[in-house]
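Morning F.,

Quick status update on the modeling queue. The single chain you submitted on Monday has been processed. Sequence for confirmation:
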Amino acid sequence: MTTAPPPAEGPDLAAQARRARRFEAVLRTRMASEVRRLPFGTARLCPDLPLVYDASAVEVERPVALVELLDPVEATFVDAGLGHRRITTSAPEVAWTLVPALSGAEGWDVSQVVYMVHDRTTRPAVSPVGFEVVDVDTWLDHADAFTAEHDWGRSAAVQAAMAERDRRLADVVGTRFVLSRDGTAGCHVYRHGEVAQIEEVQVLSAARGQGLGAGVMAAAMAACEDASLVFLVADADDWPRRWYTRLGFTPVASAWAWSRVADGSAS
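C-alpha cells below.
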C-alpha cells in the first residue's frame, strides 16, 4: 500500500479536506449520466463515455467485505454496458481493508492520489509566453495533441472520447480552460461556489523546460482569484506532487482507486 501523506492536522486542514472531497463528489455527480445508491456507496456512471474509464466508478463509503463488494460492482458495470471496472474511496478505513484484499486479485491495479490545497500566498512565476482563458471550442482545437502525449491517448477513438468529456465538463460544471497562446500548455479549472479545482495540467513534451508549467499554474491561480479554496489532485508517487508543493500546495487527504481496464480505455 502506498504511504499516505500525514493526516490533516487541526480543524482548518480537516475542513479543507472535506470541502475538496465534497466538491469532487458534486462534480462527478453532475458529470454522470446515471447515479445509483449501493449498500456500501455510490455508483456514478457515464455509459456514453466508455473509453474514459475514470468517468465511471463505484465510490465505497464504508468498510465492506470483498465478497460483498465485487458482485454488486460487476453487476453495476455490466448493466451499464461498460467494459472496465473502477472502485474508489477516500476513506482510509476502507483502503486499509481493500488494498490487501484486492492486491492479489487478478487484473486489478491500485493507485493512490492526494488532495492538495493551495496556501493562497505562494504565486507561481508568470511565463513570458502568455496564457488566456478560452472557450471549449478553442481548447478542443489543441486537446488532441495533449491526449496523444499519453500511450493510451494515441487512437482517434480515445481522442474523440476525451473531447466529448471536455465538452460535458464545459456544459455541466462551467469549466474554464487555460491555454498558452502557442497552444503548447494548458489546464482545466473547475468551479462550484467558492471552491475551485485545477486539473489536467499539461505541457507538450516538445515545449518542456521553458517554464510553461509554472505559467499554466500562474494563469490558473489568477482564474481562481475569487475562490476561497483552491485544490488539485496529484498522483501520490509521481514527481508533480513535489512540484505542486513548491508552488504552495499542501496535501490534506488521500484517495485510492482500483481499476480493471478494458483494452483501449482512456485515463
